[in-house]
Amino acid sequence: MEYTREIVAQYDRQCIRVYQAYNPAIAKEAISLQTFGKNFNVHRMTWIKPSFLWLMYRSNWGTKKNQECILAIDVYQSKFNEIMQKAVLTSPDSKRYTGMQWEKAFDETTVYCQWDPDRNINGNAINRAAIQIGLKGNTLREFLDTGICRIEDLTVQVKKWNEQRKNGKLNSKNLPVERIYPVKDKAIRDRLNMT
User: How remote is the C-alpha of 122 from its chain's centroid?
Assistant: First the structure.
């Protein structure tokens, strides 16, 4: 199946919202500091996800071990757009590169992207892709230092929504409202195979 590939997210004029799931120690510290602290490992790649329902699928609505706390991270659009300038797909299906060019770009970047089928409230695949963005090295450090506008803990709300979902009473209109985030740069669109 061919999926529509666009970044779908909640955003306003200043920020775009991404999601992550963490254990309570990392999450509590992040809420307190409004960035990530000593419990967060800056030497590993971290993946940010603009699709709320994709993260719900990945974390099983915050019930998987070490993914119990759901954080919404509002990232300055200027920083997010800067990050996307460095992004390289994790597999060589870009319109921009040949195999050798992709390998070189992949080895040199600090931002990785992959597309996965986005999900509905029950975890079933839908006819569009959700992007995951992996950050490491200097890009991750810059993101932590200057990219985050605010961090919100959605854990309690997610638990409530999950109970409603399991009882067949979740109204999807109550979930985060996401729409296509405009990526107009043709080089980025080609590199990330966006349609």
Answer: 19
Query: What are the Cα distances from residue 166, in Å, to 119, 171, 172?
Result: 16, 12, 13
Answer whether 48's CB lies under 8 Å from 18's CB. yes
| Contact of 40 with 26, CB cutoff 8 Å | yes
How many angstroms separate the Cα of 142 from the Cα of each of 28, 51, 76, 79, 82?
21, 22, 12, 9, 11
**Taking the complete model, does pTM exceed 0.90, yes or no?**
yes
Please tell me the number of Cα atoms within 13 Å of 122 on its side-chain side.
6
Q: Please identify which residue in the block is written with the tokens 């597309």.
A: 115
3-class DSSP assignment, residue 153: strand
Q: Is 81 left (phi over 0), alpha (psi -120 to 50) or beta?
A: alpha
Tell me the HSE value of 135 on the side-chain side, using a 13 A CA sphere: 22
User: In this predicted model, what pLDDT tens digit does every residue of 9-66 receive, in sequence order?
Assistant: 999 999 999 999 999 999 999 999 999 999 999 999 999 999 999 999 999 999 999 9
